[in-house]
Amino acid sequence: MRGPVVPSLRELSAAVFLFTPATAVMSTLIFDLSDAGNFEPVSALGILMMLLTFVLVALAYRVFGGGQLARSRAG
Fold this sequence. Notes:
By secondary structure, this protein is mainly alpha-helical. It has 3 helices and no strands. The protein has helices at residues 2-16, 26-35, 39-74. It is elongated, with a radius of gyration of 17 Å.
């Protein structure tokens, strides 16, 4: 179980620098909710993060590099 924990802790430690009492970074919020045993909001926030990531990657792919990737695979 050691493998998945190390990258998530590295990301969490980077997000801690962005955390203030007035604002909460989503990864620290997920960690706090998980630590408190609130797994339903953790699941909902995880799905929301995943959907947001998919949308942003698809948008970036369409705007910046979809054609370039297709040309590099064809040639």
